[in-house]
Each structure stands twice: as structure tokens, then as C-alpha cells.
Amino acid sequence: MSKPTSPSFATLVQEFFTDYMLQQRALSPCTVASYRDTFVLLLRYAQRQGKEPNSMELTDVTAKFLVGFLDYLEQERHSSVRSRNIRLAAVRSFLKFAARRDPLHLGLIEQALAVPMKRFDRKMVGFVPRQQMLALIDAPGDTWIGQRDRLMFALMFNTGARVSEILGVRVEDVVLGPTSSIRLHGKGRKQRSLPLWKTSARAVRDWLHLNPELHADSPLLPRRDGKPMTRANVAQRLKLAVQIASRKYPDLISMSVSPHLVRHATAMCLLQSGADPCEIALWLGHESPATTHMYVEADLAMKERALARLKAPQVKLTTYRPPKALLAFLKAL
């Protein structure tokens, strides 16, 4: 009876991406891209260790190798602990797949799978206050790009959409009428429909009137060449808006305003208006309402109102009087 042979590392990686991720699980392109980037970094690290990617074997992915790779991400690439854990999750998923395809190395794989996730301090969530957010929306000029940016910021604040969601909006995703709404394509292929303010609906209507060449399947917020904007485009346009709005609100400069901070601004406005955390979770497309608790923790005004309902204790301050023996000792020095 012939001895079973193990598939090569390259074969396992190719089957993991093509057969497992794309065909069997039909994962989203964003997830596939994240896993791809992880393996590119992993192979680059192996190359730094003297192992060429073409000669890489599954037995090379030991627990020691994996720990070194994670340290490399944190220390040399200055990745955050969150990013480090995301890369580790991708490698773990591959190793579990490899264990089913290559049971001969199951012991080595189990040792690598034992590398733990790293705990980290959870910082209090930041957000842009409402007045500053309105100043950001009004910052762009009246040029074609300025009108697009103003609409983009207004929709981001109205919907609390992620960058990928706002960039994925097509003209056909917007319904204008007595009750205007927008359909967002969220994480995990989940869709949600959200109502629009009358001002947002009017801005969309004016934008479409200004750009009659936009068809139903065209991106609602395109670049000059008609192609969809990128994450870098959004970050750049928001940075320019911050520079303009900071003339009125200088605090914006120190806030490190990002597209995700605008999403937090929407959540905080909903919370401060009295919306239930479950409603906010549905609005933002969160998997669990527990994710929304971080906004409750960051709302200082809500905590101040809760504290005001408590009666402050009457604390009487007293003066410390040292015993006579201590005074005699000190005077005798």
C-alpha cells in the first residue's frame, strides 16, 4: 500500500482561496482581499527569514514561526493589536482548512492554532459633535466636486454608512418620493434600507439633475471619469473639509476626523435623541446590539443627566490632628 502524500503549501493556499473561500463559502470580495493581504505579508516575512515563497511548506508554519510573524507585524510594520488579531484569524482559518486536507501534519497544525489572540485596551469611542459635523457638510464649495462632496458627507451623516457602503451606492439604490430612502450593501452581503432627511433627498435630486448622464447602475458619487471613488478619495476630501471647517471650529484639527468618525457621529446623535440601542444597531448594520454599548459609554452628557438625578452626599471635611505623642516626638528632633 502506497504511503499517502501531503499536498504542497502552494496547492493548499490555492485550494483555500478558490475552492473553499470563493466556491464553498462564497465570501465577499473584501474578505478575500483581507485574507490575500495576510498571506502576502506572511510570505514576505518568510522571505526575510531566508525561505523563498516557492519552497514554502506547511511544516514551516510552526507556532514559533507564527509568533515571529505576529511580532514582525507589530514591531516593524507598527500594526495595531486589532490588525494583528485579524491577520492571525486569517491564518487560523487556513490552518483549519489545511488540517482537513493534510491530516498527517495535524499535530503541528494544532500547535500553531494554539497561538492566542492578544488582548488590548479598548479606547473610548470618538465622534464629531453635531455642530462640527454640520460645518463639515457645508465646507465644500459650489464646484462639481464640491457639490458631490457635500452630498457625500450629508449621506454619510444621515445614514451612518461605512465607507465601503457609501461608495457602493448606485443611482438605483436611492428612492425619491414622499418617503425617500437609500439602500446600503453592508458587511456580509447584508442589505438595509434607511430613510433620508428631506434635505438629503433634495440634495440627491439636485445632484441627479446636474448629472443626467448617470444611469441606474452608475455609482451615485463618481469621480470625474465616471468611475467609483476609492477609500483614499473619501479620506482626502474629508481632510480638505476639515481644514476649511476648522477655521470656525479649531478643535476639529485635534480630532483626527476620519470617515468612521462620521459614522460614530450619527450613532451619538441617534443616542442623544433618545433612540434605543437596538434601533441604533439596526440603523448602523451592527451584528449585535452589544456593539452599540460603546456609544453609551462615550456619551458624557447622558452620564451627567444620570448623575443629576442622584442626591449628592453631604461630606463634612475634617482636619487631621496628630496625637500628642507624635507632636512631642517631632518637637524633640
Automatic annotation (TrEMBL):
Keywords: Chromosome partition, DNA integration, DNA recombination, DNA-binding. It holds the Pfam family Phage_integrase. It comes from the Bacteria. InterPro entries: CB, DNA_brk_join_enz, Integrase-like_cat_sf, Integrase_catalytic, Integrase_recombinase_N, Integrase_SAM-like_N, Tyrosine_recombinase_XerCD. Coiled coil: none annotated. Residues 123-308 form the Tyr recombinase domain. PROSITE patterns: CB, TYR_RECOMBINASE. GO terms for molecular function: DNA binding. One of its GO terms (biological process) is DNA integration. Residues 7-99 form the Core-binding (CB) domain. This is Tyrosine-type recombinase/integrase.
